[in-house]
């Protein structure tokens, strides 16, 4: 599995990936509004040259925040490898912890991150309602028919 920094790829390849998987490059969460195509990150490319995994992050002071994570092929270690790569970078940059925000309906993400040492640190009630004012295309109903309402922050303390 070869990992590449986002800046090693052509910009249009990153733009196309975000449009396909997120509808746009814009991510609206309680920590801010981000153009994911302009963030630092890493990708995993398959033998056909297609992106099969992508993670973006920001570092502010001593906190690394994962903004997006996508794995096109589940259960193959792609997401784990990308998260580990960001964690290793955060340690090198002297970050105290890695954090991320997901929504209440994203049970797969909640399971994925907790299995990798992240803990629930905060629930931001009705945060998605506020985000829809900026990005109205955020769906009302998410995975498994669960209404998308709240954001859940997870953190992992780094050694």
Q: What would your notes on this structure say?
A:
The chain has four helices and nine strands, in the order βαβββββαβαβαβ. The chain is globular. The two termini are 26 Å apart. The chain has helices at 11-22, 78-92, 107-115, 127-134, and strands at residues 3-5, 26-29, 32-35, 40-45, 51-60, 63-71, 97-103, 119-124, 151-157. The protein has a seven-stranded mixed β-sheet with strand order 1-4-5-6-7-9-8, with helices on both faces. The chain has a single domain, classed as Gcn5-related N-acetyltransferase (GNAT) (Aminopeptidase, 3-Layer(aba) Sandwich). With 159 residues, the protein is α+β, with helices and mostly antiparallel strands. The longest helix is centred in the middle third of the chain and has 15 residues, at 78-92.
List the helices and strands and how they pair.
Elements: E1 3-5, H1 11-22, E2 26-29, E3 32-35, E4 40-45, E5 51-60, E6 63-71, H2 78-92, E7 97-103, H3 107-115, E8 119-124, H4 127-134, E9 151-157
Parallel strand pairs: 6-7
Antiparallel strand pairs: 1-4, 2-3, 4-5, 5-6, 7-9, 8-9
Annotated CATH homologous superfamily? Gcn5-related N-acetyltransferase (GNAT)
| Dominant shape | globular
What's the CATH architecture? 3-Layer(aba) Sandwich
Distance N to C terminus: 26 Å
Query: Care to count the β-strands?
Result: 9
Radius of gyration based on Cα positions: 15 Å
Judged by helices, strands and strand pairing, the structural class is: alpha+beta
Give the mean pLDDT: 94
